[in-house]
Design a protein that fits this description.
The protein is mostly beta strands. The strands form 2 sheets. Strands 2, 4, 5, 6, 9, 10 and 11 form a 7-stranded mixed sheet that branches. A 4-stranded antiparallel sheet has the order 1-3-8-7, with no helix packed on it. β9 and β10 form a beta hairpin. The chain is elongated, with a radius of gyration of 14 Å.
Length: about 120
């Protein structure tokens, strides 16, 4: 069955780094766009970083407030994606979710998978 399992969250101090992992199974991971989203208490879920699938040109995009601090990478052979976060600030405190999205060519059906999330807390 389809699974996305995030790990790597925790409590860190401002200025420190953390790397989140997303292990995927049950679907053709390499063909999916992978994104990291986050949701802080009382706020809407927001896209943090996205990387295209294997056949889509390898593009990335980042939210403005994480550019230069966060990096999304993936290993399609191991079905894993990462979010490397550096210079973390209190505003980065949130639950971080891994998302995999694709559109079936034959049917145009959207395939949209989510993990359960991992908590990142930045506090001194």
């Amino acid at each position: 069955q389809v699974q996305l399992v995030e790990s790597g969250g925790g409590l860190v101090q401002p200025g420190e780094s953390l790397t989140l992992s997303c292990a995927a199974s049950g679907f053709a991971f390499d063909s999916f766009r992978v994104s990291w989203y986050r949701q802080a208490p009382g706020k809407e879920r927001e896209e943090v970083a996205t990387q295209s699938g294997r056949h889509s040109g390898g593009w990335h995009r980042y939210a403005d407030d994480v550019k230069g601090r966060f990096t999304i990478t993936r290993d399609n052979d191991r079905n894993i994606a990462w979010l490397q976060m550096s210079n973390l600030q209190s505003e980065d405190t949130a639950r971080y979710y891994c998302n995999a999205w694709a559109r079936e060519i034959a049917t145009s059906k959207e395939l949209d998978y989510w993990g359960q999330g991992t908590q990142v807390t930045v506090a001194s």
